[in-house]
Structure formats: structure tokens, C-alpha cells
Amino acid sequence: MPKYTFVCQRCGEYDTWKSMNSNLQEDACPECGEVTNRIYKSFRTNQMDSKLYNRINSGMTPKLVKRENLPKSNVKQLNRNKNPMPWTL
């Protein structure tokens, strides 16, 4: 079960484990019982492996590739002199 963060107007932020099938937008505060709303936080990257962190960050920027550096296609080019479908005349 994933952990979600909610904020209560009286008590502040708290984390709770919830099933993905349950209501993920609202929860009851464990201290006062008031209805709380979910807040969205980014995942923690400071404890992540540096190689994975760099790969995630570099994946967001587009890479410039010149036409001559593109990978060669593995699709065979049809010879225009030959009929590509010999069963048709």
C-alpha cells in the first residue's frame, strides 16, 4: 500500500498508508477526526542512487541528434526496379 500525505487545518500535515481502491482525495485526521485533503509532494531524490538521479534528470531534456548519427533502419529498402509483390502483375 502506498503512503499518501494529507493536511489538516488544525493539526497540520500527516502521512498515512492507504489502499489504492480507497478514496485518495480525502481522509479523516487521526488526531481530531476532521476531514482532510490530500497534498501532492514530489518523491525524495536525496536518498537515491546518483546514477539513477542523473538518468531521471537527463531524461527530461531532449537530445539533439544529427541525421547522420541516427541509427540505421533495419527495414529493408524495396528495390524500385523489382515488383515488391511478385504475385501481382
What does this structure look like?
- This protein has 1 helix and 4 strands; from the N terminus they run E-E-E-E-H.
- It is an alpha+beta fold and 89 residues long.
- The longest helix has 9 residues, at 50-58.
- It is elongated.
- The mean pLDDT is 79.
- Residues 1-41 form the Putative regulatory protein FmdB zinc ribbon domain.
- It holds the Pfam family Zn_ribbon_8.
Low-confidence stretches: none
Using the alpha-carbon principal axes, give the shape.
elongated
Structural class comes to alpha+beta
Helix content: 10-25%
- CA-atom Rg in angstroms: 27 Å
User: How far is it from the N-terminal to the C-terminal residue, by CA?
Assistant: 63 Å
SSE pattern: EEEEH
Please tally the β strands and state the result: 4
Number of helices: 1
Query: Major β-sheet, in short?
Result: 4 strands, antiparallel
Give the strand order, joined by hyphens, for the main sheet: 2-1-4-3
% residues in beta strands: 15-25%
Average predicted local confidence, pLDDT: 79
Summary, kept brief:
This protein is α+β, with helices and mostly antiparallel strands and 89 residues long. Helices cover 10% and strands 22% of the residues.
Top keywords for this entry?
single chain, alpha+beta, 1 helix, Regulatory_FmdB_Zinc_ribbon, Zinc ribbon domain-containing protein
Describe the SSE topology.
Layout: E1 3-8, E2 12-17, E3 26-28, E4 35-39, H1 50-58
Antiparallel strand pairs: 1-2, 1-4, 3-4
Pfam families: Zn_ribbon_8
InterPro entries: Regulatory_FmdB_Zinc_ribbon
Domain Putative regulatory protein FmdB zinc ribbon: 1-41
